[in-house]
Amino acid sequence: MNIVVLVKQVPDTATERKLTSDDKTLDRAASDGVINELDEYAIEEGLLLKEKHGGEVTILTMGPEQATDSIRKALSMGADKAVHVSDEALHGSDALQSAYALSRALGRIEFDLVVLGSESTDARTGVMGAALAEYLGVPQLTLADKVDVDGQAIKVQRLTDYGYDVVEAELPAVVSVVEKINEPRYPSFKLIMQAKKKPVEKLTIADAEIDAARVGLANATTETVDVAPAPPRAAGTIVKDEGEGGVKIAEFLAEKKFV
Amino acid sequence: MRVERALPTREASDLLDLVQTLVNREIAPRAAVDEERAAFPRDLFTRLGRAGLLGLPYPADYGGGGQPYEVYLQVVEELARGWLAVGLGVSVHTLACFPLAGYGAPDLREALLGDLIGGELLGAYCLSEADSGSDAAAMATTATPVDGGYLVNGTKAWTTHGGVADFYTLFARTGGSGPGARGISCLHVPASTEGVSAAPPERKMGMASSPTASVRFDAARVDGTALIGERNRGFGIALAALDSGRLGIAACAVGVAQAAMDIAVDYARERRQFDRPISEFQGVGFLLADMATQVEAARELYLAAARRRDLGQPFGARAAMAKLFASDTAMRVTTDAVQVLGGAGYTRDHPAERLMREAKALQIVEGTNQIQRMVINRHLDDRG
């Protein structure tokens, strides 16, 4: 089975993240780039499926030159090869444009399954799986916390507010995963050494036959009008236990729909 | 302050990234609780073995990492920053593998080295005895040659990983009753050998998670093939191993000092008195600046010694200087970190006091700092 895992490099959530003042896109110099956390689960799921069904895991990344650090990390977890779409013209592309561009790159790769994290820690739109599936014309199985493949059939548990739905489809398909699905492995030094020798194919938009008029900040379908730092957290609710603290906490949780 | 490392290769910097992730996610968060419970984190060593981190400076042909000391030591430093019991454990394991990797006969290396450096086995180094500490050549443990092997009798003291190790790298007398450096040999003794047993761990002031115990050899029989290097020439191996081992201790000391400094800086920037962060008072700010300078100097000193080693140049004096300076620095910086945190620093709710207790061990192990000065003094007439 040929599995493609989408990996996005995002600013480290442990550092202060900033947008540039001129075009309100991500200031990549302000913080270190790391693999989007949910994508690590996607990589792990890809590797688990490969271990079970054979085949290859290909990493697909769209992003500037420094994203190669994240690609190498993904390869040192055990992926076999990578495709890196990198072009100045892609700068400032929004979610829809990115989905279009990735679908073009995927057109060059033979795949049975595309796996990705259900959202990124920077933009947090959570639409990539759905948008990509539309562009590719294949089924989308989103928010998966369990994936089973049997021949050409794929079945996932789709996480919902009330439990989970069972969703089935035929391959090829796109699956987005949530963090409950597995426990991502760490690289080993051996795999780090092997990662150096794994092929990374670099694609410009011309190579991937991406239409320049459909990507980039100037052609974006959305616009960032204004940005402001997140407000400080409001003070919490203090429950004083005067014999019925437990009831009050239960009521609070029920009101917030946690129980 | 973030540690800016100049690493020689891209895989070295990826390796340090991996170690940092393991430290931040798996190692450091457990240190305080496990130290309080005196729990030995065997599972972490298994995990490090699987990640290929228990044989970094040894040949890749045998499953090691093939890394220069310059890189290996920075891994040890980073592990010790998270938890000294782990950083020191890796350093001691590496020390225990040193004789076999450097002096073992080809057959023995072929048979054992892969398991020692490329697997999940954990080693210990048995040199000191109750009456033979700084004067290591005064050891009394014997390995009497018998038909096809040796019969080992005696008790080794202060053995890190005593009782939890999978193998012991043992130094014992094979040539008569001694005393002196001649007649000592190095032997590989599996922990499962009949007659090998460990006493309960010492009750130390720090590093409760890293067991230190006496190991008893009671008519323990090992094969003739267990001999590492030439018979009766083992003491030179022991000293050579310690030259390299001291660099590991220096790296551990820098890791502990770095951890203490990070805690002190964070606290001093956050803690406000007289309407400002206490780091803005010169009395605290200058203390932090001195800490940072000493940590940086200690790191550069061990790295300078490591690079000489990697180039095949003499490095024994530099290694002793690095061990001396780095462990004294760790003691000073951890003590100052407790001072910066004030009353909070003296409680077990903050890690500063634990780091201070841990730092003390590093002024003592693998040659007390007084012995380091003897070594340095002895080298003053040569160019090493």
From TrEMBL, chain B:
PANTHER family listed in its UniProt record: ACYL-COA DEHYDROGENASE, ISOVALERYL-COA DEHYDROGENASE, MITOCHONDRIAL-RELATED
Domain Acyl-CoA dehydrogenase/oxidase C-terminal residue range list: 232-380
Keywords: FAD, Flavoprotein, Oxidoreductase
Protein source organism: Halostreptopolyspora alba
Cofactor section: FAD
Family designation: Belongs to the acyl-CoA dehydrogenase family.
PROSITE patterns for this protein: ACYL_COA_DH_1, ACYL_COA_DH_2
InterPro entries: Acyl-CoA_DH_CS, Acyl-CoA_Oxase/DH_mid-dom, Acyl-CoA_Oxase/DH_mid-dom_sf, AcylCo_DH-like_C, AcylCo_DH/oxidase_C, AcylCoA_DH/ox_N, AcylCoA_DH/ox_N_sf, AcylCoA_DH/oxidase_NM_dom_sf
Acyl-CoA dehydrogenase/oxidase N-terminal domain mapped to chain residues: 9-120
Protein name: Acyl-CoA dehydrogenase
GO molecular function ontology, one term from the record: acyl-CoA dehydrogenase activity
Start and end residues of each Acyl-CoA oxidase/dehydrogenase middle domain: 124-219
Gene3D superfamilies on file: Acyl-CoA dehydrogenase/oxidase, N-terminal domain (1.10.540.10), Butyryl-CoA Dehydrogenase, subunit A, domain 2 (2.40.110.10), Butyryl-CoA Dehydrogenase, subunit A, domain 3 (1.20.140.10)
